[in-house]
Amino acid sequence: MGESRAYDAFIEKAGNLVDSKKFDDAIEHLSSAEAGWKENKRVQAYLGYAYFYTDQFRKAILCFNKVLKDVERAENIRFMRGLSFDRLDDVASALSDYLQVLKLNPRAKSVHRNIGLLYESMGDHEKAKFYYKKALELDEDDPGLRQQLADLDI
What we know:
It is built from nine helices and no strands. By secondary structure, the protein is mostly helical.
């Protein structure tokens, strides 16, 4: 029972540190996890987020991989891994993760937008328009999306 409470307190502190954007403190805290907790998916998820927000994308990907090994439908983790690949200019891996997120949640506006951004960066304006339009269908009031779409039509 004491072990469970200690773990819960450890995870709660990790979550509070990440939520309050104290990412370096979160990394230090999570890195001090007891041996049996280090591979826990919640520890790895929080660690992945902290690494992502400190621009340590390769480390974030390693953490997210550990979570996804056990939890295939972890939509947010897959999206964050896609963002990490995106930041490392690994377009193929980012696109793969984003498309998998859309299979889980076809209404994920930010994923449609990010796919549009990827295609735009590759010069495939037709595919970029397709995904921007999908994102706009989900949020018609987004002026940024409207502008991105308009910029492609110039």
